[in-house]
Amino acid sequence: MTSMNNKVALVTGGSRGIGRAIALKLAEHGADVAILYAGNADAADATARDIEALGAKALAVQCDVSDYEQVAAAVARVRETLGPVDVLVNNAGITKDKLALRMSPEEFDRVLAVNLNGAFHTIRALYADFMKRRSGRIINIASIAGVMGNAGQANYAASKAGVIGLTKTIARELAPRGVTCNAIAPGFIETDMTASMNQAAFEAMAKTIPLGRVGQAEDVANLAAFLAGDGASYITGAVIHVDGGLYM
Ligand code: NAI
Hints:
Layout (H helix, E strand, L loop, with lengths): L7 E5 L4 H12 L3 E6 L3 H13 L4 E5 L5 H15 L4 E4 L14 H29 L2 E6 L2 H5 L5 H21 L4 E8 L5 H4 L3 H8 L10 H12 L10 E4 L6
Parallel strand pairs: 1-2, 1-4, 2-3, 4-5, 5-6, 6-7
């Protein structure tokens, strides 16, 4: 598949999990891919090598997405090395779960800073490029928790609901320029993030999924690749669920 030949994608949190799967899927479709990663250089290098093995160019840049200056510098490096970004995937995300009663204001702020401010930062850093070039795709990874709420995730659910509001606003602002912005709301996907959940709770929850299985990172990556491709040019401001039917 080569439908994304000569396109450049930037995936935040692309070193592992869902971000890694998206980075590899876009490379499979022919895109050159930059990944921003928080701290694990070995994992980021491994993903970059796997992207190159698919015949695409790769670049891994360490960057805390909650810090705008770091994001602006990382975006500039991607632009210089691979060229202007065509596809932005805001995937970096963290959880700090506990009942709101015990959640510290710092725990609330940090999750918002990474999950919501981080998505704004990359969009802000690329906004003028997208506008001038009159093309571009923005894909934000939200969550079913941002739509339904989830006990123990006041910070996370608020951040993901925020990502949905951000998505719809950017979709409206950039639609006249031919740039689309959509959100993917995954349900339960098997990654390091869900591996850290209480396993009994995870298995009980898995039984409630209509399609009868937890999702794989590739289930999300398939949709991201579609939204990044030519076939999705008339879709913007959408929140698309990839959750085995959990939310309907
Ligand atoms: P993960 O924990 O395996 O990966 C998260 C990625 O984000 C890592 O690559 C990490 O380096 C990066 N990251 C974290 N903080 C960062 C920071 N400050 N700056 C830059 N990068 C940072 O998680 P997973 O499961 O792959 O999640 C990816 C996205 O999907 C997240 O936004 C998550 O909220 C969302 N999601 C995941 C679900 C799941 O069931 N796994 C369900 C719904 C949404």
